[in-house]
Amino acid sequence: MTVVTRDAVTPAAFGVPETESQRSTKTPAMAAVDLVEEFPRKTKEPVRALQPLTDRGSREGARAMTMDAEFYSRVAERFGGYFSDARSTDVFADGRPDAVFDELVTALGAPHARLLDVGCADGRSLLRISRAYGAVIGIDLSPSMLECAERFRAESGLEHVTFELCDAARTGLPDGYVAVVTSRRGPLIAHEFERVLRPGGAVVYMGIGEQDARELKETFGRGQNFDSWNSRPLSEGIAQELSDAGLVVTRNQTFHFEEFYHSAGDLDTFLQQVPIVDNYDPAADKEAFDRYVAAVTVDQGVRLSRHWFIVQAQKPAAVEPSPS
Ligand SMILES: C[S@@+](CC[C@H](N)C(=O)[O-])C[C@H]1O[C@@H](n2cnc3c(N)ncnc32)[C@H](O)[C@@H]1O
After folding, report:
1. What pTM was estimated for this model as a whole?
2. pLDDT in the model for residue 28
3. CA distances from 321 to 163, 195, 318, 324 (A)
4. Ligand 1 atom nearest to CA at 142
5. Among the residues of the chain, which ranges form H helices?
6. Structure confidence at residue 88 (pLDDT)
7. Of 194, 204, 248, 293, which one has the greatest count of Cβ atoms within 10 A?
8. Neighbouring-strand partners of residue 3
9. How far does the centroid of ligand 1 lie from the alpha carbon of residue 137, in Å?
């Protein structure tokens, strides 16, 4: 079992990815110090303007600027990136999904391999694993998240990583261009992923399961994938989409874990930074919020039960014609 305390710093830091065993030998305080050193908080600075959208579907990209991307842009503008200032102690009975994801994607890397990450948000999760690849591109539909990503990239000095405003459905990349496509709680566009992958290449996708924060959503009467708890597991649907696109699913791993927020205020902060409960409003939702906190507060804190999954798939290698 892994226990990690999030103490007003982001869990995502670039550099050498941590393995599960390394993570579990660190005290929470040590982990927090690492992160603070790697991501010193800075006063807001003007951010280099992003290149305009490339001809890879600029109009489509703009049109596809969904409510989703608008939500993430608001988060980036208000909080300076995609991370939570909320303090919690997280207990991972099935392993820590982000650490497992990092290990899988790092193991697929090679000095000349190209990695495409879709829905990269503020880019820190991508920067953390990027050293395993020769060239890395992160795409997202939120300009504000990408401004944060470019700032973190510049701080990291990682010159082989680029960020672009681009729709995952229309990357415009050549066929067979990348060795690996990743999406960490980002979009899944199976046919586009299959197209840009080279034969033998892999997709690694991390998603949110149907049981995620169920008790919270039931209390609020709404939320991401509301009322899908008794339907087909969402990971199966993702695996099916990848397989329908011609990929071979090699992994479907489930992670149930618990987050214990140190106070009701920490949970409130967290809910403002994520889309778990759509349009969460501390004033309008106060009654439901208080009811939830009263029902789930235990000695360790205010409990939030999470359910994530990782699905991995491979594009079949090209078959050499047999000599006649
Ligand atoms: C949950 S966040 C991803 C977090 C990030 N992968 C990480 O590990 O920290 C989802 C991101 O996907 C982006 N997104 C949603 N639809 C997209 C699309 N069609 N193309 C590219 N990015 C998209 C959103 O703007 C948002 O930044």
Report:
1. 0.83
2. 28
3. 39, 21, 9, 9
4. 25
5. 20-25, 28-38, 58-63, 67-79, 97-107, 124-129, 143-156, 190-196, 214-220, 234-244, 264-273, 286-296
6. 95
7. 204
8. 91
9. 13
What residue type is assigned to position 37 of the chain?
E
Do 108 and 179 touch, CB atoms closer than 8 A? yes
Ligand 1 neighbourhood includes 149 CB (under 6 angstroms):
no
Q: What is the pLDDT of residue 67?
A: 53
CATH superfamily of 2-314: Vaccinia Virus protein VP39 (3.40.50.150)
Atom of ligand 1 nearest to the CA of 184: 6
Question: Using an 8 Å Cβ cutoff, are 225 and 212 in contact?
Answer: yes
Does residue 182's CB lie within 6 angstroms of at least one atom of ligand 1?
A: no
Tokens 């005290």 found at? 27
Q: What is the mean pLDDT of each run of 10 residues along the chain (324 residues)?
A: 69 40 32 25 32 37 54 87 86 96 98 98 97 98 96 97 97 98 97 98 98 98 94 97 98 98 96 93 98 98 98 90 72
How far apart CA 254 and CA 92 sit, in angstroms, is: 12
Number of C-beta neighbours around residue 51 at 10 A = 12
Report the C-alpha gap between 83 and 10 in whole angstroms: 5
Token representation of residue 266 = 């920490």
186: Cβ below 6 Å to ligand 1?
Answer: yes
